[in-house]
Amino acid sequence: MTTTPPKTAPDGTPFTEKFERGLQTRRDVLGDEYVSASVDKATEYNFPMQQLVTEYCWDEIWNRPGLTRQQRSILNLGMISALGRTHELKLHVRGAINNGLTKEELREIFMQVAIYCGVPAAIDSFRTAQEVFDEMGI
What we know:
With 138 residues, the protein is an all-alpha fold. It folds into 2 domains: 17-61, no CATH class; 69-136, AhpD-like, CATH 1.20.1290. Helices cover 72% and strands 0% of the residues. It contains 7 helices and no strands. The chain has helices at residues 17-30, 32-40, 47-61, 69-83, 86-98, 103-117, 119-136. It is elongated.
């Protein structure tokens, strides 16, 4: 039995068009399961953050012309690796694979990270990527 995702915020306010567009992009990149868990579990307290991320990150930025989703994934992997945000890196490794990047391309991104951000950041990124590859069976 499948459930229909909510079309309203926890306070009953309908989702905006920006939110719906961003939500679709977010689902395309990160996958339905992760996005549904984030949005469906949102409370009145934390929904404003979900709304901000979905409308501005996933609609305003990810849906802009000028860069492909693959190019945006490459940028995100480098920045998130440099920041050492392992949880977010896992999501964006999966997103990069969903956007058509290969394991070999991810390896090269993390090799670049080693030179410009440091070996520890790259080692963590390789470790994190391997966990995602194992989860995805690739």
